[in-house]
Write a structure and sequence with these properties.
By secondary structure, this protein is mainly beta. It has 2 domains: 99 residues, Immunoglobulin-like, CATH 2.60.40.10; 133 residues, no CATH class. It is built from 2 helices and 18 strands. It is elongated, with a radius of gyration of 25 Å.
Length: 266
């Protein structure tokens, strides 16, 4: 009797495997990728805090174009547990309520690809720093024309940053009624990725330019792989409770602060 059960079990596994491989795949190849949010680039590995959703997407023919609806089976694999995932077209969002690692498998006849997401109990520092975040202030965002120093830069103010970012005011933004001299106009500009929050600009620097003694702001840079990148490592993106992390070297450049003529204090 045990022998018969073993034979039936083997036949069942064979049938499951056959179901994977007999699908008619309309693509030359498929690629499955993950991202923690819509602003972060797709990759084969990502991390998220417990309870957060990870975006899972399936692409075709060498990566870049989403698959058409159907034709690809996706499974979430944890150890020996395989859970089928229903895609909404080419994508889905997936979350876990406890620390774990999940590998996503995409099957389409011959082509097979995988991507992995890790859920941890780490604290996302961004949610405490970014205005409007879970813990951050909801009242410290600088509008596009609300600060006279917003174009302060070493590139005439028209800089497209390499990463998504935000501003934090340092003091109160000038209200419509009030005396300009009593309110602070300074701010910090930050950008971020999955590893770090980078400080790009700080207008509250107390230094002055040596040639004309005018107010100077601070620009920070990171030197990485032979390139100067805007933004010095300021905070790690994720930390465990009680953990510390070294930011490494960052480089500071002082630049004269200049007001955008379109901005007014009143």
């Amino acid at each position: 009797m045990r022998t018969i059960k073993k034979i039936l079990s083997c036949l069942l596994l064979l049938n499951v495997f056959t179901a994977f491989t007999l699908l008619s795949c309309p693509y030359n190849s498929v690629q499955i990728r993950v991202q923690p949010d819509l602003k972060t680039h797709w990759s084969k590995n990502t991390s998220a805090t417990v309870g957060a959703k990870v975006h899972v997407g399936v692409f075709k023919n060498g990566w870049g174009a989403p698959i058409d609806a159907g034709g690809v089976q996706v499974y979430a694999v944890q150890g020996s547990q395989w859970t089928p995932i229903n895609l909404s077209g080419w994508e889905t969002w997936y979350a876990k309520s406890f620390p774990t690692s999940v590998t996503f498998h995409a099957y389409c006849s011959g082509p097979v690809d995988t991507a992995t997401a890790n859920w941890t109990n780490q604290i996302d520092i961004l949610s405490y720093v970014k205005p409007g975040g879970k813990k951050g202030s909801k009242h410290s965002v600088i509008s596009a024309g609300g600060n006279p120093w917003r174009t302060f830069s070493n590139s005439n103010g028209n800089v497209k940053e390499r990463l998504p970012g935000f501003y934090i005011t340092k003091g109160n933004v000038h209200p419509k009624t009030g005396v300009p001299g009593l309110f602070a106009w300074n701010f910090e500009q930050m950008i971020y990725d999955r590893n770090w929050l980078y400080l790009v600009r700080d207008t509250s620097w107390t230094a002055r330019c040596q040639d004309n003694y005018r107010e100077a702001g601070m620009l920070q840079f990171t030197y990485e792989n032979g390139k100067w990148l805007r933004g010095g490592r300021h905070f790690p993106r994720y930390l465990n409770k009680g953990q510390s992390k070294h930011t490494g070297s960052k480089y500071i450049q002082g630049v004269e602060k200049k007001m955008n003529p379109r901005d007014k204090r009143a």
